[in-house]
Each structure stands twice: as structure tokens, then as C-alpha cells.
DNA sequence: ATCGTTATATTGGAATCCAATATACATCAA
DNA sequence: TTGATGTATATTGGATTCCAATATAACGAT
């Protein structure tokens, strides 16, 4: 990112994705400017960027807050993600057999291993990566960017709801999706993608997590200040 | 829009969509600030917004320009639009028979009339509206917004390439798409959507239009200064 | 004509200032 | 005590001014 405000936006986005800034948190300009060592203007520009992305909500004369997702918005985001992933699956058919295809398959199997070994952290990480990689297989940057944006927005959910997933089932789904695409059973693959995402959404709303105590702003962003490549 | 920069962004977006600001046009901060009667800061924030949207490209220390679309980007945008419209079609199946459905059907038939009467302007207008309405039928705001963004971006093409479409064929496609959805032949409907969009893309690249002389900035945005509701 | 140098203009950003307004606080009435 | 009202304060949105970095243009020398 060549601009200061872009860097700031990246830092704040990381803080949100890392669940150190949770929905509803106030993002005061002065406070952020001080914590980040930049002027208010740059902070504001960063917040505008993030508002455009949907991660932040700016209220006139009240300031910026980490966005809250309504139930309806959540459902619509997941529905949109499903649409994109289904489309990506259709486009990815032509990629079967490439090295990229082999890679995603390997990852999916690693995830299955991790899930069966109850390595929740790794399994979760690989699971998220799968959806990413599937879209990347489509070879369409525009689609990829839109999907990434939706992914960022649903991260807001993780900060509120604590979900209990059947990691094994999810990992198995991933492998089955790949199988179906390989066998050119696109319709079935797309149906499974839809079902798979429905399960994920349901997982979120089964139980609401205890409210996490919000961190002080400066503390929340601290780990992300050093901007590694 | 509650913020000044949002209003400015809207004005500039309209100017681009109205093809008064064409790809490559320099959007000088000072010049715009003067023409719009606001400070440079607000203009910059507006440009940042639009850059996030893809309509504007900001180059470090060089300024903002109306984005140019590469051939590859164009293809990917249309591919993404196709994916979204196909997904929307799937979701719209449940809307068959509603008043909204009747409305889009009426519009599509109006377009066919206009096309057969060689009323190019009206036909074109209704044709664009069709794709919009189809996505709106899905009842998913997130999907709708993404589609609208892609639509804004492809407008950049209109400013460069002059296309010769077979308006009648396009209008007929629209009606056939509706027919297929009504008959629950989703796969065929989606295939037709894909083919339909492929034809549109091809139409753009058949012949390059004469270069339009760029308007002076102030003149370009003049018609959009009065912001009607 | 080509290359290097200088001059100029523009951007990116900081610091300061101010109006509008939302929130908090205090005061007062029931 | 509780509710309503008015005041104080803090924050935002924006304007203005200033400056460094740098890209572009103008210019001159070879």
C-alpha cells in the first residue's frame, strides 16, 4: 500500500480480523491518531476506506465504529458468498489436474487430518483457506476480491458469536466438493457448497458467546503496528 | 449521503457514468476543489472512496485518474457479473408470480417493443435495467450492491468503445431468460445468461470508437452539481 | 535529437482552527 | 426518587495554511 491511510486501514483491518476490535467498538479519531502516530486526517481517510469495505460504520457527528452485523445482513452475506463460490466452482472445472488443483487437494486433506486429530486451530485455519483457494482457482481476480471482502465482513461474526462446529464434517465436505468437481458433477458440487455454508451459518447462531470485554484501543492495535510484508 | 465527501463522490460518479469524464482523465484535487466549492481534503476523501469502488485509480504523487479497464479486467468483471446474475436467477425462482416478477416481465416486453421500433435509446436503457431488476429479485442487498458496483465499472467501457448491439436479440434473450426461470429450467436460464453476457462483451470489442475529446473538468461535472433527491 | 539539470506544480500529509452537534452533567420540578 | 430541561464539554466534519517529496516540464549542453 503506497498511501499512509491505506497502511492504517490495513492495521485496523488486521485488528478487527484478529478480534481485538469487536463490533460496536468506538474508533475515535484523536485516540487512533495518537496511538498510530499520524494525523487525524489520515485516520479519517482510513476509516472512510474501511467504511466503504463494510467493516466500519460512520455515523455523522458521532464517529466511526466497528460494524455490527444484523441477522439479515449475515444471512445475505453468506448467501452472496455461496453464489460466488458456486460460480467459482463452475469456473474451476477447467483447473482440475493443474498444480494449483493438486495444492488445494493437499490442503483439504491436511485439514481432514487436523480435524480428526482434534487440532481445532489448524483445522479452522485450513478450513477458511479452502474457501479462499477454491475461489482463487477460478482465476478471476474480481471474483476473488469480492469474496475476500465478504470474508472480512463475516469475521465480525466470529467476534460476537462463539460457534461449535463439527470440524470433521466440514473438512469432509471440502473433500467431497473437490471430488464432485473432479467428476464434473457441477450441480451436486454447487448444492453441497450451499448446504455446507448453511451449516456454517447455523453453527454461528446456535449459541451466543459470552460478551468479550473490549480492549482499549491502543492495546488492541498494538500487535499490528509492525507491518510485516 | 450525510458526508460532504460522499456527495462529491456521487457527483463525480455521475459524471463518469454520464461519460463526461472518460478513462484516463486527470482528477486534479485543486481543480476539483475549486469547481466544487469545497476544500482539497474533501475532494481527496471522495477520490479515496471512488478508488475503493474501482472507478478511480490513485497513483502515488501523481494523483487520481478515471480508471482504465484492461481487456483482462473487462472480461473478469463480466464473468463476475455473470456469476452474480446466475446466482440471482437461482434465488429469483421463488419470486415467480409476485408483483415484482410481473413488473420485470412488463419492462422486458417494453424493451422488446422499443428494440423492434428501433428506439435505441429506450431499449438500451431498459436493457440495463433488466439486469439490475433481475438481481434485485433475488432480494439480497449484498448481492445487489456488488452487482451495482460491477455495473458502474463496466460503464467505463462505454466511454471508450462504441458498440453495435443487436438490440432485438438482446431483448429477446431477456424474455427467454424469464421464461426459463418461470419454467424452473434453471440450468438453461443460467447458460443463457452466460451466453447473453458473452455477446455483450464481444459487442464492445468489435470496433473501437473514435477518441472522444475530453471535457474540461469543471464543464464535465457541471450538470451534476445540483444534487436532486 | 538525446541526455542531464533545474524549475515548477501537484500530491501527501501535518498542524491548527472553527462550527455543528452529540453526549454527559448538573440543575430543577413533580 | 425520578423525569425534564438546560448547560458544558468533547468529538466530529471541515477549512485553511504550511511543508516535504516527487513527478513533470522546461531548459541547456553535448
From TrEMBL, chains A, B:
GO molecular function list: DNA binding; DNA-binding transcription factor activity
- HTH gntR-type domain residues are 2-69
Which InterPro entries does the annotation name? GntR_C, TF_FadR/GntR_C, Tscrpt_reg_HTH_GntR, WH-like_DNA-bd_sf, WH_DNA-bd_sf
Q: Does the keyword Membrane apply?
A: no
Q: Which UniProt keywords apply?
A: DNA-binding, Transcription, Transcription regulation
- Record's superkingdom? Bacteria
Per its record, how is this protein called by name? Answer: GntR family transcriptional regulator
From which organism does this entry originate?
Answer: Zavarzinia aquatilis
